[in-house]
Design a protein that fits this description.
With about 425 residues, the chain is of the alpha+beta class. It is about 20% helix and about 35% strand. The chain is built from eight helices and 23 strands. It is globular.
Length: about 425
């Protein structure tokens, strides 16, 4: 009897663990990035957020406490600044990714550098983010990097920007200083395309308004940073109207159980696909109906962006990587020539009429930059039409000709089918990140 009770207890424990794991996987995911000028407290803020939400492993905490013994308290920046050079110089160089969860939501954080020369690293971290935290030192106000990172976040299609007015403890938690800076940021951010802009006064070092409300800023009636991250609405940020399914891999099987199995695997870039829906394959234009939609957990009736699935069709079609499934009456533009805003990432300047590789969704093809139209002045957001020398971190509008057609949407409509990277075919280095306009 006792043995049977133990077995039943183990089964119940396993079932609870399985349900908890399933519940965790089904939780909503928010990706956010930190940005701002040097020493505005980005890494400290993330460290404090992880510490106060108890998202740090015990051995990691002991290691940080050991390193921080010489200071008066825990150096929270050490929780994200993992490179030796970062710890020695006290700055962030590479993008540091951190993961944590609360009962309401899962989070992926990209802690990005503040130095101008590492702007390309900031773009890498922000490219997949739903929300950008832009830190501003209340003593220094709006500086060049504040404007640069705000513009890049807006350009990358990040709908939600939260300005974290940091180091309020160094100005005696002054409401007046916060309101003056908030007004300046509101005037600048009104020129951006981001729909949702918020402002939170805080002290990342002391934890004021990060996870817990600050008793020293009773004049602030908004939510804490964690409350904002847990409750901000991001479901409408995805395009669930235009169905886009770039095929990444074709799965074939001729086993006895799955005779003539053909599935098309990839990640949905837009819209909602349902079993029985009619779809059209690009570039062939052939149509079929969805026979099944499969995931690692089995077959499902419908799938939407950004889910990774395998789609099976009723009719056998000759499809391969780089093809795309869409709705017959709603397809992207098929183009070889297009205009784009690009951020130049390479140390070597851009060259017109030089061959690059454009990687767009699951397609790779050669291309050339046929025209450099203008560069953008980050501080004023004005066009510089006379300056055509494109160097590292420059943001410019160009015209591109691809050697074969690609299936594109405007970036402001679909961040996946509207974005691409340029690759140097000689070095295989990524030289630019682009957004189709």
């Amino acid at each position: 009897m006792n043995q049977r009770w133990k077995i039943e207890k183990r089964k119940a424990t396993f079932k609870n663990m399985k349900n908890a794991h399933k519940s965790y996987l089904e939780m909503d995911l928010l990706r956010f990035t930190t940005a701002g000028s040097v020493d505005d407290g980005k890494s400290t803020l993330i460290g404090r957020l992880l510490y106060d939400t108890k998202s740090i492993f015990e051995d990691q905490l002991k290691s940080i406490e050991k390193v921080s013994k010489k200071t008066n308290g825990i150096n929270f920046a050490l929780l994200t600044d993992g490179l030796k050079e970062e710890r020695e110089q006290g700055i962030t160089i590479d993008v540091a990714y951190r993961y944590f969860a609360t009962p309401q939501r899962k989070f992926i954080i990209a802690d990005t550098p503040g130095h101008f020369e590492y702007t390309r690293n900031m773009i890498t971290g922000a490219s997949t983010a739903n929300l950008a935290l832009i830190l501003v030192d209340v003593r220094h106000g709006v500086v060049e990097q504040t404007k640069r990172h705000s513009f890049i976040a807006s350009m990358l299609g990040i709908s939600h920007i939260v300005y974290c007015i940091n180091k309020m403890d160094l100005v005696d938690y002054s409401e007046e200083k916060f309101l003056v800076l908030k007004k300046e940021l509101q005037q600048f951010s009104s020129k951006l395309t981001s729909k949702d802009v918020r402002f939170i006064p805080m002290s990342a070092l002391l934890g004021d308004n990060v996870v817990n409300r600050s008793e020293k800023m009773n004049w602030y009636e908004g939510g804490t940073l964690l409350h904002t991250l847990e409750n901000i609405h991001i479901a409408s940020d995805y395009n669930h109207i235009d169905c886009r399914f770039p095929i990444q891999y074709v799965i074939q099987s001729e086993s006895i159980d799955t005779s003539n199995y053909i599935g098309y695997a990839g990640r949905i870039a837009g819209g909602v696909f349902k079993k029985g829906d009619e779809v059209m394959a690009l570039p062939s234009g052939l149509t079929s109906k969805i026979l099944a939609i499969e995931t690692m957990d089995g077959e499902i009736d419908e799938a939407f962006s950004p889910m990774s699935v395998t789609i099976r069709l009723e009719n056998e079609m000759d499809l391969s990587r780089g093809d795309m499934l869409v709705r017959p009456n709603n397809s992207p533009e098929v183009r070889q020539d297009f205009d784009a805003l690009i951020c130049w990432l390479s140390d070597s300047p851009m060259k017109k009429n030089t061959e690059y590789i454009v990687q767009h969704t699951s397609t790779n093809t050669s291309c050339i930059v046929t025209e450099i139209k203008y560069k953008i002045n980050i501080n004023t957001l004005h066009r510089m039409e006379d300056d055509k020398e494109v160097e590292t971190n420059d943001i410019t509008r160009v015209s591109i000709h691809a050697s074969q057609p690609i299936f594109v949407d405007r970036y402001d409509r679909n961040r996946t089918t509207g974005s691409f990277i340029l690759i140097d075919p000689l070095t295989n280095n990524t030289v630019a990140a682009g957004m189709i306009v």
